[in-house]
Every structure is written in structure tokens, then in C-alpha cells.
Amino acid sequence: MTLEASVVGGSGFTGGELLRLLSGHPEFAVTQATSRSYDGKTVGSVHPNLRGLDLRFSDPTDLDSVDVLFAATPHGVSMEQIDEFEDAADTVVDLSADFRLSQESQYDEWYDGHVCPEYLEKSEYALPEINRENLPGADLIAAGGCNATATILGLKPLFDADILSGDEQVVVDVKVGSSEGGAGGGEASSHPERSGIVRPYAPTGHRHEAEIEEFLGLSVSFTVHAVDMTRGAAATCHVFPDGPVSKGDLWGAYRESYEDEPFMRMVAGGSGVYRYPEPKAVAGSNFGEVGFEVDPGNKRLVVFSAIDNMMKGSAGQAVHAANVALGFEETAGLDFAGLHPVGAP
Amino acid sequence: MTLEASVVGGSGFTGGELLRLLSGHPEFAVTQATSRSYDGKTVGSVHPNLRGLDLRFSDPTDLDSVDVLFAATPHGVSMEQIDEFEDAADTVVDLSADFRLSQESQYDEWYDGHVCPEYLEKSEYALPEINRENLPGADLIAAGGCNATATILGLKPLFDADILSGDEQVVVDVKVGSSEGGAGGGEASSHPERSGIVRPYAPTGHRHEAEIEEFLGLSVSFTVHAVDMTRGAAATCHVFPDGPVSKGDLWGAYRESYEDEPFMRMVAGGSGVYRYPEPKAVAGSNFGEVGFEVDPGNKRLVVFSAIDNMMKGSAGQAVHAANVALGFEETAGLDFAGLHPVGAP
Amino acid sequence: MTLEASVVGGSGFTGGELLRLLSGHPEFAVTQATSRSYDGKTVGSVHPNLRGLDLRFSDPTDLDSVDVLFAATPHGVSMEQIDEFEDAADTVVDLSADFRLSQESQYDEWYDGHVCPEYLEKSEYALPEINRENLPGADLIAAGGCNATATILGLKPLFDADILSGDEQVVVDVKVGSSEGGAGGGEASSHPERSGIVRPYAPTGHRHEAEIEEFLGLSVSFTVHAVDMTRGAAATCHVFPDGPVSKGDLWGAYRESYEDEPFMRMVAGGSGVYRYPEPKAVAGSNFGEVGFEVDPGNKRLVVFSAIDNMMKGSAGQAVHAANVALGFEETAGLDFAGLHPVGAP
Amino acid sequence: MTLEASVVGGSGFTGGELLRLLSGHPEFAVTQATSRSYDGKTVGSVHPNLRGLDLRFSDPTDLDSVDVLFAATPHGVSMEQIDEFEDAADTVVDLSADFRLSQESQYDEWYDGHVCPEYLEKSEYALPEINRENLPGADLIAAGGCNATATILGLKPLFDADILSGDEQVVVDVKVGSSEGGAGGGEASSHPERSGIVRPYAPTGHRHEAEIEEFLGLSVSFTVHAVDMTRGAAATCHVFPDGPVSKGDLWGAYRESYEDEPFMRMVAGGSGVYRYPEPKAVAGSNFGEVGFEVDPGNKRLVVFSAIDNMMKGSAGQAVHAANVALGFEETAGLDFAGLHPVGAP
Amino acid sequence: MTEADCVECGAEVSLHDDLEVGEIIDCGTCGAELEVIDVNPPVLDRAPELEEDWGE
Amino acid sequence: MTEADCVECGAEVSLHDDLEVGEIIDCGTCGAELEVIDVNPPVLDRAPELEEDWGE
Ligand SMILES: NC(=O)c1ccc[n+]([C@@H]2O[C@H](COP(=O)([O-])OP(=O)(O)OC[C@H]3O[C@@H](n4cnc5c(N)ncnc54)[C@H](OP(=O)(O)O)[C@@H]3O)[C@@H](O)[C@H]2O)c1
Ligand SMILES: NC(=O)c1ccc[n+]([C@@H]2O[C@H](COP(=O)([O-])OP(=O)(O)OC[C@H]3O[C@@H](n4cnc5c(N)ncnc54)[C@H](OP(=O)(O)O)[C@@H]3O)[C@@H](O)[C@H]2O)c1
Ligand SMILES: NC(=O)c1ccc[n+]([C@@H]2O[C@H](COP(=O)([O-])OP(=O)(O)OC[C@H]3O[C@@H](n4cnc5c(N)ncnc54)[C@H](OP(=O)(O)O)[C@@H]3O)[C@@H](O)[C@H]2O)c1
Ligand SMILES: NC(=O)c1ccc[n+]([C@@H]2O[C@H](COP(=O)([O-])OP(=O)(O)OC[C@H]3O[C@@H](n4cnc5c(N)ncnc54)[C@H](OP(=O)(O)O)[C@@H]3O)[C@@H](O)[C@H]2O)c1
Ligand SMILES: [Zn+2]
Ligand SMILES: [Zn+2]
């Protein structure tokens, strides 16, 4: 029996991904996609890949009753409208930062406070690799931030295997594509100014530090660069563990954590062109790649992690979490393998 | 009941697409992928998106018996080995130019001759939009050239609707991505030399002119440019019909030809960012987009056509044709919608 | 003795190029650069390559007296302010379309009319390759449109050599980069939407047809595509002359027209990676490349032409014309050779 | 009086840059450019921007006598041929790693040993910002590695100002363009495989660590990623100093070191699109940009540094050093400002 | 849901039930902006063209 | 230095002094590969075309 789903913020980038995924999902039927700016227009007029979809945007003030409501709105919108969302749907999956952290104080520190902190306790972080056991039956699910997701996926096995405890020094140097900024975009994201760049866009103080600290218990030195691709987030974690760690230890740790994960791939050496994680190897798919190398001279581990920011880093993660929450096949609707070759997807 | 399929030339670009499509196809199981250079290596070591596939390349001299053999080898290879291919499989689908034309003399004129002209008569051109009725039961199928496919799809409705008869002047100006050259590539396709280009790579005399003439009965002035994308072929056809043609006439013609086609989309104006066919709107998918505009002052029609060269332009077309030939659902294994946004896929 | 120069519209793309060229020019000193939005800010805050320039933007309502005023404002601005410009400077060089055509009626047909048609007669088209003899002493100079410039440079030798007379059929298929749209840019020119494209942005009816007709006496079938580069305009002219033309005839014609031109290069075959004109071979420089091929089967000539839209296509052309007008060395300030390799400049 | 200069390895990427710079240099005349593969061909057939240069490649076994010989050959070539080079020229400027380090043991550790260690003592490192005083009169000059140059330029002011002493932990995460690999290139640098990437190409153990240690006395944790641009190297240095450091301290340190440097620019905040160093802001020019931010929460400084790998990172640095060595104006031949906007240069 | 033919391309445009005169909808096939002229039965006409800027 | 006319494009091609019959040089204008047929005076002819692969 198909469940009905709606997407609030359907004209945005992650909203478009949700519409693509849900309309190809065996268990869902999309009944509503909202947009204030494109109210009344076909979904295909904004998302050309969805020209085959017979659906028009409607206004978010008039929400259909559905089984699952996905919200893909900017930070701050969902916390204002959570009561309407909960009225309209049994399950709410939110892609913004509004329900990711557990404490109101974190929102005071990293964001501009919170208007309904009582929801923070009941919401569940979407990333199944770290929170699968709490998802079944959850009715408020918060998809992770894309840079945080890449980082958490890269580092988590080191905690699982007690290679890290949380006090170590970790530098995370992230490279992201232009879709991370969402649709619209000003001068800095115009094609002439943004193409071909390596641009430090969050040198320090990126809000995703809060999320990483929340879920790994680790304070990281975090810097984000914009580079010339549209999809993709790649995190390079420079890790300084207390004692010596061999590459065999690392393989053991990562296999232990991810061997049975349907969307995690380990890539750490070998031959060929693609020897470490790369965003373009997973672009368009819900896969995450992790890999690593040891640097004994500097007592360092280097961990690489790559995802598609709009898939594993948001819409894909949201659908994956919904699958777990609702008891569906975990990979339902998420079976696209990605492309090869692919330019800058 | 699943059919067994093999891919000769599985380490190449279109071979990789075939492996991706066939391994996700409900009616096929891939049993062999050949490569001389990567013999014994995993398919995923070459095609990183297929790391999940449990298959290793094997040598093409030792072909498995299968139901369907797909060949994705350079021009000239299949005609040398067609007997082995036919021995190994009930149905052979070839992606090269070796069996596209019907006359040996055409191979003498445009290629370096043909070693088994007796097969030319029995082979069927794969493009269902122009040859659907002859595909069921075919046992040798020749997938079209990507630039020819883009051109034929763009112009065919004008012939169907008697707007063109074959004597008119038509200039076809094509723009293609780097995957058209296949894996490997020399200095001209190295990243520093090939990025950011508009390079006239076939100013005149492109071999696909033969294919277009064969299937449309039209001699076209054909020029191909390499541009900075990896996937995609876009044909701009400048057409000079005998009498005046309105935009309404064109809508009528294109709807008549393509309304019921599962993979054809018409895009010709409207609002939004994507108003005419664009390769990135179909990248990764088997869709073809066609559109048009009238230029009364110059007595010209401009027809735009966009495909993914490795999908609708080869591997996708091949699978589509196999679906028709074998009586499967036409869209089986070809349901990926494409991505939005997407950079230069 | 150095002349004083100002740039109205100095915060824009071509205005930035003018500032770069003029500040490195041996005969000019830049005294003013205007911008309403960046009034008071350093030039380097907008154009990072000009961080070394000690100059701040000022408001265009308060123009310095200078020897030469360059205007790089959107269409329509210069015609409104031409009296102020003429008051402020002895020589005005305008980069917009406002003074390119000679008849008011052309502005009625192609633009939104003209407010000071009396200036049309006295203004001189900047392109020295077609109007050198009229530039010395001119006091109102109109730099050509970039797509028109590329086309005119490509076709002019065919007229000089009587290969074309003006009645022939010519299709011009242009490919341009994103800087052609100027700074700012909306959703269609955001990086995620604009990267990797082949987008028909002016299928028919492009205003530059008027300019081409004005200077070549030829009505062309003109279509412009946006492709993934920032700088560059490449025109492919498909030409159908009356009688047969050999490649030797073409070499003769092009050498005759351009052999002594300091900024024109002929590229038509040969070996190596760069065998025909390519925008990236001239990017950043004031060079224009032209080349050709014959297609006897289709009674066609194919002419290729490539320029940097912001150099030979506007700011460089403007400085070149000013050099001629003022009696300077033609190449003064324009000696940058371009780069190799270069990505998508 | 003009000096004669030759370029060994003139068909390569940095060799092409040397030819461009030297042929536009007021004090040099280029008399020879060698290439074994293109012996006899015009320089312009390989470097399209130099089509105007009347020079043909000749064989490196037959070296002209010149004042200055620039060698732009792969590592290992110059050390084999240094005697011939010294015979042919008074001054040798080498762009390879062969004479950068001072100890034979370093070549044993990081490279494959050295065949003429006696030259190591007399050679001078080219980077004027750290070695200006030793360049005048030097007759063997070794241009730095591009990634090392970016890193050294970023960190040096911290040493000058005693913010770092050499024992601190420093992570250097570098992003580079495709020209760093030189002309030619195999499958990994083909356009389809290399475009749109964030690829960890030297996760650990990069040879430039040796150079950084040699000149800063600092052991760094070094990782290099290939990203989608052709020119450019951007180093992000994550620095953990012993005590607290304010942004004011940093401005003081960097101004102290670089205020009078003709090619160094400080960019650390402000408004506009370009707020920190970016390779595309310096592409094609000899400028280096450095900037920084403080992260008190993590007791970290983040230092950004950006250069054009083929200019400040090799050919430009070489010419700059030659200017200093020979007593020319430091900026002679190096006055190109770079471009704005520019795509992925 | 009712339907009407697009005046630009002739394709069927599906219309929602509470359609109002003056409403502008786009055709899913050709993208044309269509104005609802009448509702019962529905009649569409090409909406007055907004000369939209479209980059470049 | 002597000179000869390119047989492809007609431009002057500058020739070095120790020119030998059979040598192949490219024309700086059109890029054509030219074979030295005679040296005194120098005569050039189009070199036999090597069907060079050029990507795609
Ligand atoms: N892009 C990514 O890679 C990424 C990754 C992880 C998480 N996220 C998060 O996902 C969310 C969506 O991001 P995005 O990149 O998809 O953004 P986007 O492209 O800007 O789209 C935002 C969407 O929300 C709608 N919207 C905006 N304000 C609204 C309001 N007040 N009420 C109702 N709808 C509103 C917009 O449509 P109208 O204005 O027409 O209504 C649009 O459909 C954000 O919270 C973002 O942080 C994004
Ligand atoms: N790329 C496109 O967009 C496109 C579009 C339409 C049609 N096509 C056609 O599709 C065919 C394949 O193109 P591609 O781009 O995929 O080429 P490709 O990337 O170069 O791959 C060629 C494949 O064939 C194998 N191969 C080469 N020579 C062989 C031989 N003698 N015997 C057996 N296997 C051999 C290669 O592997 P090993 O060398 O390791 O054996 C490789 O797997 C060509 O005929 C091409 O014209 C391509
Ligand atoms: N881009 C090209 O490749 C190209 C090629 C050939 C010709 N052109 C022509 O060159 C001109 C400039 O193009 P662009 O691409 O450089 O445009 P742009 O980047 O948009 O710059 C326009 C400049 O004009 C200023 N401006 C706008 N309205 C003004 C007004 N009413 N009064 C005074 N200043 C005004 C703007 O600054 P403020 O708004 O801050 O004042 C800005 O500095 C256009 O006419 C264009 O058609 C451009
Ligand atoms: N690319 C960069 O960004 C960069 C930056 C800093 C330093 N460097 C260093 O600069 C040097 C050149 O780098 P590149 O990128 O310019 O390399 P490249 O593009 O590969 O060029 C190498 C040049 O050397 C010639 N050559 C090769 N082997 C030779 C030999 N045995 N004898 C004489 N000539 C030989 C080649 O021409 P023929 O084979 O035709 O003779 C070619 O002209 C390298 O040492 C590199 O490490 C490069
Ligand atoms: Zn319609
Ligand atoms: Zn010639």
C-alpha cells in the first residue's frame, strides 16, 4: 500500500531531489509540492529532469493531509511551521538544521535561537549509519547537514574502534560544490565568479561543527572551501591519534563499521584512476565513500570521505531514514548507482 | 525468466554504461564483461560507480554462451568477430558503426570497407523512434552513432509531416562532450588542453553524414565541435524548408511523431531556465529532447536536439532496442530521470 | 605625454577589462572609474586582479574632465548621457550598442528606438579591421558587439575577395561564454544552472544581426548558444558561395585581408592540438583567430572565428580603436599574448 | 643590452610559460627552445598563444651558447646534463627539483638519489621572498616546487614574527590544477576522468615536504588534492601556535614580511566576492596571495595561500629570480595583472 | 480534474477543479503561459508575454 | 636564413641554413607539413599526410 508524501520547498535543490526520489519510489506517491514563487507551475518547469511528472506546485499555506511530509526549506522555516507540518502528516522529515541538535543552548550558540525547543528531544537524526536503531516509528526526523554527514561518516569508525576517544586533534578540510548553496544565489555564485575556484567560504566557525560535536563528541578544526563542481562534498580529516595505528587497523575498523551498510563503500588505495573517495564517483547516488591513509612520520591518519551533498548529504539521507522509520526496504527508491564517466555533476 | 547478457568491451565508456544498465535491469543478468587490458580485475576498479558489482573482466577470446551479447568495441572489431559473437549469443547488439549502414559501398566511401557485407542486410538499426517495427525478433542490432541519433531525432518529424522532402538545405552544427572519444584519449583530450574549449573537431566530412543520409534520405552540411562537458550531444539544425512553416505546424509535427514515445520530450519555449533542449537536462538518462523555433526573416527553422551520447546515443539506445526486440517493457532498466541541478555531467 | 582616461561603468565586466588595459597602457593614466553600487570602494574590491591599483569608484553623476572617456554601461545608458560624456571628454569610446548602427530606423526595428539619432552619423565603428581609415580623429567611437565582431571578422575576407557578394545563404552558429551576460546575472547564470551547458539562448532574432547586415551587407541566419566557459565567443559560419572555392582561394583571401593585421591570426589545419580557431587560444588577449575548411560535397565553406568577448569583442577593441584614433602604436597596452595551457578562461 | 636566453624543455607547460615570459621581457631575447618530440616545428604549433613567435624547436643535444639557460625538464634530467648546461650558459635557472635541496641525503630519502651532489651547495633557491639576498650573481638557480612555494609563502611570516618556531603542528591541505602534471598525461588526466574532481592525489609523503622543511625548518602534515582547474595551487595551512594570536598580530606579521614585496598581496576578509586568497584571482600572473583567519575555539590559525603553479610556482618565479640575479628591475617581464572575470584558467 | 487544449502546442493541459478566470497556468508540454478566459467549459488563451530576461 | 613559399597557404616560410632534402618542416602560418624537395634554391612540397588521430 502506497503512502502519500508531500514536499514543502519543492522548487529548491533538495526539494527537487526529494521529488525525483519519491516519484520513483515503490512505496510513495507524491501528492503535493509547494512553492510560493512557482505556485501553479508544473514541477518540470523548474526541474527539467522531472518534465514527465504530472504535478504542479501549490502554496505552502494550504498543506494536503499526507502520510509523510518532507520539508526542504531554509533554516528557520520548519521550526516556525512545525505544528502545521505535524497536523498535516504522521511523519515529518525535515532537511534543515532546525531539529538536528538536542539542546536549545546549541541553537543559541550556533544559530539564532529556537522557537520550539520542546521538539528537540523527540526529533531523531536521520543518518542511519549512526542512528538506525532510533528511527523506526520516529515521527520527526532531522536530516543531517551535508558537510557534517561527510565528516561524521569519515570519522565514526575511528570512534567505534577506540582509535579516537574525542580529545584528539582533528583538522577537517572540506571541499564542496555549488548546489550546497541552494537555488537562487547571488553574485558570488554566478557562473563567471564561481567557476574554476578554490574559495575559502567558511574559514572558521562553520555551524556544522556543532553537529559533529553532538554526534561524535569531538571538537574539530573545520574549514570549508567551495570548488568547481555542482554536486559533492569531500571531507579530508587530518587525525592525530594517541598511539600508532596501522593501515590494517584502519581496514579492520572501517570494515567493522560499514561492511553491512548498504550505502557505504571503502576505497583506500589500489590501482586505477579512482583510488580514494571522490565526490564524482558517488554523484547522483546515495552512496558514501570513505578511505584513509597513514602518515607515520607525522603521526597522522588522513581520512577521506565523499558524498553527494544533495543525496547522502540531504534528500537521499532523508529518504533512507524514512525507509528505516517506516519499515521499508532500506534501499527502496535509492538504487541509482551513479555514472561513469561523469564530468562535474 | 532472466536472460543472460555479456558485454564485450566492458572496460570502455559505453561498455561501462551497458554494465550499469544491464545490472539494474529486471530482465537481464550480466554474466561476462570483457577487457584485454583489465583482464581479471574487478569491474569496479575501472568504473567506480559499479564497485558494488561482483564481476571481473575476462578476456574477449573466451566468450560465454549468453542470450544477448552487447559489443561496445571500436569500429572494425565487431565485423571481424561477428561469427564468434553470433555463435556465443542468440541476439547481438553492436554499438559500433559496423552494421549501421545497408550497403558495402557506403563502407567503402565513408569507412575502410567492410569484411562481412552479407550481414548488412540483416542487421537492424536500433533507434526505436525510426525502426521500432523491425526490431522484434531481430538478431543483429546496430545502435546508432550519437551525433547521427541527435540529428535524426531532431529532423525526423519534419519528414513525417512532409515539411521536408530531402532536397532542402540543412546545416547541422553539433556540440559534443569528451566521453564521445571513449576511454584513453591522447594529448588533445587531456584535461588542460580540453577543458573550456569550443573546438571544431570535425569541420567537414564526419562519417555520421552517411547514417543521416541513410535514414532520412537527406544530405546534410555537418560540422561537429567539442565543448566542455563530459556527456552530451546537442545538434542545432538550421533548416530551410520550401514554404512558410508556423510554430503551430511544428508543434503539430513533433507531437504527432513523439507524443507517444516514452523517451522523447518536446521543449520549445516557455519560461524558466530550461526553454530549449539541453544535454544537461537529459544527462545520465535515456531521454532525448527536441525543440524548435521559426525565423521567418531568414525563411529558416531552427531545430534543437539534445541527448546523452552514452545513453540515447549508444548504450541506452541499445538496451531500449533490446527491450523492443525481446518483447520487454520498453522502459525496463531505463527509468533513471536524470538530475537537477547537475554541473557538466 | 600621458592622456587622462575615465571609465564609466567601471565595476562591470568590460569596465574591469578597460581598467586593466588602461592602467597598463603606456599612453594613458586612469583618473576615474564610476560605479553607483560600489561608490567609494576600491577597484580591487570588485576586480581582484586590480588590487594593486590605487583607485576608488566614484559616482557617475560627477564626471571628471578627461581626454578620453570610455563607457561600459548597459544598452541605453550612453544615449541618455552622451551630452555629459561629450562635455567631460574630447573623445568618447562607447562599448554599448547605442552608437553602432547608422540609422534611427534600425534602432526602432532591433532595439527600443533611439533618443539622440543625430549622433549616429558621426559615430565610428571601432573595429579597425573594417574601419581603420575612419578612426583617426574620431570623437565618438562605438565598439562592436562581441558576436557581431566574431562573425564580421570571419566573413569579411570573403567579401574582400569577391567570394561572397551579400546574396548568399550564410548560417552563423555562435557559442559564447558567461561573461557575455555581464556582472550580476540571475538564476539562469548561477553556477549550478549554467555550468556544463549547451543552451540555445538566442535561437533567432539576435540583435547583432543588424550590425552584421550594416557592415557586411549580408543577412545571416544567426543562432547563439551559451556554453561552459567564461570568456570567449566562437562563430561557425556555414557559407554557401555561388561557385566552387578551393582551400587555396581561401588562404589567398584571408592572407590578403589579414596578413598585416597586428591582431589577426589564421589557423586552418596543420598538426597539433589547436588546428582551427578556438576561444581559449586567444583568451585574455586581443587576438582574433580565423580559419576555414571546404566541403565540396555540400558546396559549403565552413569559417571559424574565435575571440575573447571582453577583449577583441569589446574592451580590447575599444582600446585598439582609441590607439588608432589618437595616433598611438596600434598594439599599445594590448601586448598580452594569452596563456597556454589555460582551462576555461 | 639584451641578454640571450634559451629554454630546454620548451614544449612542456612551464617551458611554454618561460617562452611567453622571455619573449615579452625587455632584457631578454630567446634564441633557442628545445624539444625532442617537436624538433623542427614552430613553437606556435604547440603553444597556440605563441603563434606570433618566429622560433622553431631544436634538439636539446645541440645547445646554443647563451647568457641564461632555463631548464624546464622533468626531475632527473638537469642533474644529468648540468655540465652541458653550464658550458652553454653563464647562468642556469632550473625549474626541476634537482637543485632545490642542500643535502645529498635528502635526495636519497625523498627522490632517487643525486648524480652531482657537488652542485647542491652552490645552487640558490629562486624564491626571492625568502632568498633575495643570495640571488645576485648566482649562476645556478633552482626554482621552487609549486606546492612548496604556496606553503612557504603562506607560513613564512609566522616564522619571521616568531609566532611559529618550527615545533608546532601544522596541517597543509593543498588543492591543485591539472597543469601541475605537465603536458602529456595519461588516463587519470584525461578530460572525462579528471573534470569535476576532488581527488586525493598525494594523501601522504609528498616530496615537497622536504623543501618546506629545508626552508622553514618545519615538518608539515601534507596532503594534496587535484581539483577542477587547469592553473593554480591553493594551500590551506591549519596552524596550531603555542599561545593566543590575534588577527591584529597576523596583519602585523604579514605586512612586515610582504608589504614591500612586489608580487605578494594580502587578502583576509573584507567585502565582495573575493575575500581570501584564490588561485583564480592570480591566474596567469606572478602574484601570490596570502590571507588568514583565527579560530580561537580550536586554538588554530588558518592560513590561505594561492598562486599560479606555472607562474609564481615555477616559470614566473624563475624569471623573477633571474631578474634579481642579473640586476634587472624585479618585475621586468612579469607585469601581467591577471584577469577578471576568469573561469577556470 | 478537467482538461483543455493548449493554444500554443495543442497538448492537453490538466486543470484543477477550482479554476478561476484570469488565472495563469503553464502548459506542461510547451511551457507556454496560458490565461484562463472562461471556466465552464474551460477556455485558455496565451497570456500576455512578459518579456522575461533570461541571462546573457 | 633563406625563405620559400608555403605550397598550402602561400605564406613565406623561413628556412634555416643547413636545410636538407627530405626534411619536414611545418608552415608557421597554416601549420602544413612541408617536405624539402630541393635545397638550392629551396623548394617545398606538401609532405605525405599522416592521418593523425586527433581525439574524440
Ligand atoms: N543544498 C544542499 O546541499 C543541502 C544539504 C543539506 C541540507 N540542506 C538544507 O536543506 C534545506 C533546503 O536547502 P536547498 O539547498 O534545497 O534550498 P533552496 O534551493 O534555497 O530551496 C528552498 C525551498 O524552500 C522554499 N521556501 C523558502 N522559504 C520558505 C518559506 N518561508 N516557507 C515555505 N517555503 C519556503 C523555496 O521555495 P519558494 O521560495 O518558492 O517557496 C524553495 O523551494 C535547507 O535548510 C538546507 O540547509 C541543503
Ligand atoms: N562514446 C560514445 O559516446 C559512443 C557513442 C556512440 C557509439 N559509440 C561506439 O561505441 C563503441 C565503443 O565506444 P567507447 O567510447 O565505449 O570506446 P572505448 O571507451 O574506447 O572502449 C572500447 C572497449 O573495447 C575494448 N576493445 C578495444 N579493442 C578491442 C578488440 N580488438 N577486441 C576486443 N575488445 C576491444 C576495450 O577494452 P580492452 O582494450 O581492454 O580490451 C574497451 O573496453 C565504438 O564503436 C564507438 O564508436 C560510442
Ligand atoms: N560582456 C561582454 O562580453 C560585452 C561584449 C561586447 C559589448 N558589451 C557591452 O558593454 C556594455 C557593458 O557590458 P558589461 O558586460 O561590462 O556589463 P556589466 O558587467 O553589467 O556592467 C555594467 C556597468 O555599468 C554600470 N551601470 C549600469 N547602469 C548604469 C547607469 N544607468 N549609469 C551609469 N552606470 C551604470 C554598472 O555599475 P553600477 O550599477 O554600479 O553603476 C556596471 O559598472 C554593455 O552595453 C554591453 O552590451 C559587453
Ligand atoms: N607544471 C608545473 O606546474 C610545475 C611547477 C613547478 C615545477 N615544475 C617542474 O618543472 C619541470 C617541467 O615541468 P612541466 O610541467 O613543464 O613538464 P612537461 O610539460 O612534461 O615538459 C617537460 C619538457 O621537458 C622535455 N624533456 C623531457 N625529457 C627530456 C630529456 N630527457 N631531455 C631534454 N628534454 C626533455 C619535454 O620535451 P621533449 O620530450 O619533446 O624533449 C618537455 O618540453 C619539472 O621538473 C617539474 O617538476 C612544474
Ligand atoms: Zn502547450
Ligand atoms: Zn602555410
TrEMBL record, chains A, B, C, D:
Catalytic activity: [amino-group carrier protein]-C-terminal-gamma-(L-glutamyl-5-semialdehyde)-L-glutamate + phosphate + NADP(+) = [amino-group carrier protein]-C-terminal-gamma-(5-phospho-L-glutamyl)-L-glutamate + NADPH + H(+); [amino-group carrier protein]-C-terminal-N-(1-carboxy-5-oxopentan-1-yl)-L-glutamine + phosphate + NADP(+) = [amino-group carrier protein]-C-terminal-N-(1-carboxy-5-phosphooxy-5-oxopentan-1-yl)-L-glutamine + NADPH + H(+)
SUPFAM superfamilies, A to Z: Glyceraldehyde-3-phosphate dehydrogenase-like, C-terminal domain, NAD(P)-binding Rossmann-fold domains
Region (Disordered): 177-196
Pfam families: Semialdhyde_dh (PF01118), Semialdhyde_dhC_1 (PF22698)
Pathway assignment: Amino-acid biosynthesis; L-lysine biosynthesis via AAA pathway; L-lysine from L-alpha-aminoadipate (Thermus route): step 3/5; Amino-acid biosynthesis; L-arginine biosynthesis
Record's GO cellular component terms: cytoplasm
EC numbers: 1.2.1.103, 1.2.1.106
Full protein name: Putative [LysW]-L-2-aminoadipate/[LysW]-L-glutamate phosphate reductase
Organism: Salinirubrum litoreum
Encoding gene (name): argC
Automatic annotation (TrEMBL), chains E, F:
NCBIfam families on file: lysW
Highest rank taxon of the organism: Archaea
InterPro entries: LysW
Pfam families per the UniProt record, alphabetical: Zn_ribbon_LysW
PANTHER family xrefs: LYSINE BIOSYNTHESIS PROTEIN-RELATED (PTHR40393:SF1), LYSINE BIOSYNTHESIS PROTEIN-RELATED-RELATED (PTHR40393)
Gene: lysW
Protein name: Lysine biosynthesis protein LysW
Taxonomic lineage from the root: Archaea, Methanobacteriati, Methanobacteriota, Stenosarchaea group, Halobacteria
